[in-house]
Amino acid sequence: MLRIVLFDDNARFSDSVNMLLATTADMRLVHSARDTSQLIPVIQQEQPDVVLMDIDMPGKGGIEGVGQLRARFPDLPVLMLTGFEDADKVFASLCAGANGYILKSAGIDLLIQHIRDVHQGGAPMTPLIAKKVLDRFLMLQPVSKEEDFNLSEREKEVLQYLVKGHSYKMIASEMEISYETVHTHIRKIYKKLHVNSVSEAVSKTLTLRYFRKEAQ
After folding, report:
1. Which of 55, 171, 196, 212 could form a disulfide with 62 if both were Cys (CB 3.0 to 4.6 A apart)?
2. Which value, in Å, is the radius of gyration of the alpha carbons in the chain?
3. Residue 92 region, left (φ>0) first, then alpha (ψ -120 to 50), else beta?
């Protein structure tokens, strides 16, 4: 049973998420709050498996909230919620440590899938946001001529799909392999890159020579 905590100031949306998770066999909403004023105490008390965080909230807001969570709970998956695909805000939340994001207008099935994806180490992103991440890190990171982290060709292919914002399910379909095989590849990628999230993996991939051509 995945324990979910939600931070969102829209009561109607919070109620909808609560009803959705109540009918999902392996998930339940254990706490809902309209701001992040009690962020750390709530996480310490509820010990969630995934946090759903609205980007725009009164007070500190979701982006600052993610930064606080990442500092105190580095391995806790955080999925950002947004009403509109504001590329700059979404990008800022990913830089702060979010594992992915989803539009509030997305369908029920997609929300459930994204929750599962971030819990299993994925990073749901649309190609627009993935490109912003790529472009920003290309400006900041030098390309190494020596280091390739010993990734296999298959692992490079999986990583390339991740950077483009594909979910585990989409990668499995594109590569014609099972969901479980995708998960296994990603665990190996994390180990070789010495990272714990896709956001960190994206940064490191931009030091690899074989991504220079793809990003141009």
Report:
1. 55
2. 17
3. alpha
